Amino acid sequence: MSPVRLSPQAVSFDEPHIVTRLGLIALATDLTSERDYARLLPRDNIALHTARVAYENPTTPENLIKMTPRLTAAADLLAPGTELAAIAYGCTAASVVIGDDAVASAINAARPGVPVVTPTGAARLAMRALGVQRLAVLAPYVIETSEPMAAYFTRHGLDIVRFECFGIEDDRDIARVGAAPILEASLGLVDDKVDGLFITCTALPALGVIGEIEARTGKPVITSNQASIWAMMRHAGLSAAIDGYGRLFAHDLPSGAGDAP
Questions:
Q1: Quick one: how many helices (H) and strands (E) in the chain?
Q2: Which of 91, 146, 177, 189 shows a CA-CA span of 20 to 30 A to 80?
Q3: What stretch of H or E contains 36?
């Protein structure tokens, strides 16, 4: 006779809303985003579900745009049948070359009605919330990938005062950049001519230097993952302030931002 039997214990289930579920579409080669999200997201009753999208280095506009037809399938793998409060796409440079709206449309084709956050769209919302108009930008990319990003922010009405890039082609190498060069390059970009600093790229491990840059310059710092996490939380109705990762988390989404990617 089998030793297995049904338990006499009656089973009850928590309501779905007990856990706020967020989605992340990360590049197959991404080594940074999930760690950053784990550091910043409040742990109580929040779950992050990640799907990977195929991507091939080097980080050039031609390779980045190849992800476009893959985004819907990746979104379809994010906790199927489960309600998500927001979905982030974890690539800043691809959001520029594909387009914020096109990224949102591709993801919403699989997950209709879910707010979609792109790092570029989140950064623009963060700049509005912080009153940043004159911008310094630090990027890890090659010049070929950095130029479309500078054009993107200019097109959206921001004044790019300074823009420097490290010239790294592979996002796995970007994930290995140390804190010291990020800090020193950032400090060299920020002065009284700029309102704030944007450190771009979800692969760049820049979270740990945000507080020091802000303390030493007196100017707000926005990074791709920091801004994306902030926007996701606010879209999900999560108003928690997170200490140590920039003054951004003291702010709500600016008015009229509900439908922005």
A1: 11, 8
A2: 91
A3: helix 33-40
Residues 6+ away with beta carbon under 8 Å from 198: 123, 127, 132, 135, 136, 137, 138, 153, 221, 222, 223
Q: What is the CATH number of domain 121-224?
A: 3.40.50.1860
Type of residue found at 32: T
What CATH number does domain 17-118+226-243 carry, 3.30.70.2740, 3.40.50.300, 3.40.30.10, 3.40.50.12500? 3.40.50.12500
* In the chain, domain spans: 17-118+226-243, 121-224
> Per-block average pLDDT, block size 10, for the chain (261 residues)?
91 89 97 96 90 94 94 97 96 97 98 98 98 98 97 98 97 98 98 98 98 97 98 93 93 77 65
CA separation for the pair 93, 60 (Å, rounded): 9
* Chain segment 57-73, per-residue pLDDT in tens: 999 999 999 999 999 99
